[in-house]
Amino acid sequence: MTSSEILAPTGAERAEGYPASPHSLANRAARAAWGVVWLVLFRPSPKIMHGWRRFLLRLFGARIDPSAKVHASAKIWAPWNLEMGYESCLSAHVDCYCVDKVKLGAFSVVSQYSFLCTASHDIRYLHLPLTTAAITIGERAWVAADAFVGPGVTVGPGSIIGARSTVMKDVAPWSVMAGNPARLVRTRTLASDPSER
Questions:
Q1: Beta carbons within 10 angstroms of residue 74's beta carbon
Q2: How many CA atoms lie within 13 A of 12 on its CB side?
Q3: Cα(49)–Cα(188) distance, rounded to whole angstroms?
């Protein structure tokens, strides 16, 4: 069999069309309702109204500490899969594609335009079935601007992901990672606080 024969749609594929969504009808309905709420009530809210946005996310099942901050332009795919700890932050234009669980630890920050992606596709099969895996951003970790964090990744506590980096493997605690793919730049060490001198 030639590659063109493999790639050509079979009679069954023509009859059935594109594979059905792997998401339940309830999931799709909830996401549609959230999409309307995000567009009408969440996205237009002024920058300072973090409490209002936390309230809306909690209505859809998110577990968010009262001190956490989610900016109005952040996109959350399924709020019921989001957990945010004390003083954690999803900054402007973050894409939190939480098909699976996304957890942000205390004081963790995901900077603007970053993409937390919990889903992919299994390339061993022609119809590319959906695969998902949770993402954890550890306490006091910082994902800098426009970084990509892939499915199943745990960013260890105190770690830093450099701007525009691509992270596809777990990051050890207190590591500084950068590049595509992200590589260890150095281990993070803390200087004494200038205010304490």
A1: 23
A2: 2
A3: 34
- pLDDT 10s digits, 100-112: 999 999 999 999 9
Count of domains forming the chain: 1
Rounded to the nearest 5 percent, the helix, strand and coil shares of the chain are 25, 25, 50
Q: Are 177 and 184 in contact (CB under 8 A)?
A: yes
- The kind and range of the H/E element at 12 are helix 11-16
How many beta carbons lie within 10 A of that of residue 33, not counting itself? 12
Q: Which residues pair with 131 in a beta bridge?
A: 120
Polymer length in residues for the chain? 197
Is 182 domain-assigned?
Answer: yes
Check which CATH number belongs to the domain holding 147 and give it.
Answer: 2.160.10.10
pTM here is 0.89
Range(s) of the domain holding residue 172: 25-187
The alpha carbons of the chain give a radius of gyration, in whole angstroms, of 19
Residue 9 lies in a domain: no
Tell me if 36 is assigned to some domain: yes
The answer to whether residue 4 sits within a structural domain is no
